[in-house]
Amino acid sequence: MKVRFLSAGDCGLVVEFGERVDRAVSEEVLNLQASLAAAAIAGVTETLPTFRSLFVEYDPLVTGRRELEPAIGALLGRRPKARRMATLWRIPICYDGAFAPDLEEVARRVGLSPEEVARRHRTLPYHVYMIGFLPGFPYLGDLPAELALPRRADPRQKVAAGSVAIATTLTAIYTFESPGGWHIIGRTPVTLFDPSRSPPALLAPGDAVRFEAIDPALFAQIREKSEKGGYAIAGERVAL
User: Fold this and answer.
1) Distance of alpha carbon 115 from alpha carbon 147, whole angstroms
2) What pLDDT, in 10s, does the model give residues 129-179?
3) What does the pLDDT read at residue 142?
4) What topology does CATH give the domain 85-239?
5) Where in the chain is the domain with CATH 3.30.1360.40?
6) Between the N and C ends of the chain, which has fewer C-beta atoms within 10 Å?
7) DSSP result, 87-155
8) What is the pTM of this model?
9) What CA–CA distance (Å, rounded) separates 130 from 81?
10) Distance from C-alpha of 159 to C-alpha of 180, rounded to nearest angstrom
């Protein structure tokens, strides 16, 4: 796998792995992040994984690209001595009515019933590739191939917070109300980003997500508890 080093201003270095968005590339990114954390290289202050790269922030008064590039290069290709641990989150989702305005259209376009689209959407565990676009917004893969569709031709000006949507090979959860061009097939009552929480984002790159179907009544109950701070979703530590 070809690796490139790219400068990002005077305090950042991007380590780029290939040009694909897939699990193998993501594992290389996450392995390097873990290796960097273990190496504790002087001057490195933060790392941020994306689909196919790792952003490395550093203190320019301590180190720079000339020192970091060979130090990081020596870590490439290393494999953890133990299996990587991640958090498995079980996220409730309601696929009914107003919570899923695009479900019927998606079903028509892929040649399945709405119920079957919902079932297939929640069959597999998803890999959290990265967090971006909005605070705490997770890009999750990989969507079953039969559900893959391009983005909507007419993006919405407003997508409700908690909306679960699909596009291309991915599914995602809108953490705040925002514009959006993905196909909305459900909604979760769970708050994925809370500034008062530590860390504020519920999900992290490398985590796993399973969706679990709920009805509108249970959605309302969870939402009410969540808004009052009385609902907490617990993750399960698993070896991947």
Assistant:
1) 13
2) 999 999 999 999 999 999 999 999 999 999 999 999 999 999 999 999 999
3) 94
4) Cyclophilin (2.40.100)
5) 3-73
6) N
7) EEEEEEEB-SGGG-TTHHHHHHHHTS-HHHHHHHHTTSPEEEEEE-SSTT-EEEE---GGG-BPPPSS-
8) 0.92
9) 24
10) 6
CATH fold of 3-73 reads Gyrase A; domain 2 (3.30.1360)
Cis peptide before 194 (omega within 30 of 0): no
Amino acid at 48: L
Q: Can you list the alpha helix ranges (DSSP code H) found in 171-215?
A: none
CB-CB neighbours of 201 under 10 Å = 16
> How many angstroms separate the CA atoms of 146 and 212, rounded?
20
Unique residue bearing structure tokens 């009914």: 96
Residues in the chain where the model's pLDDT stays below 50: none
**Token match 């309601």: residue?**
94
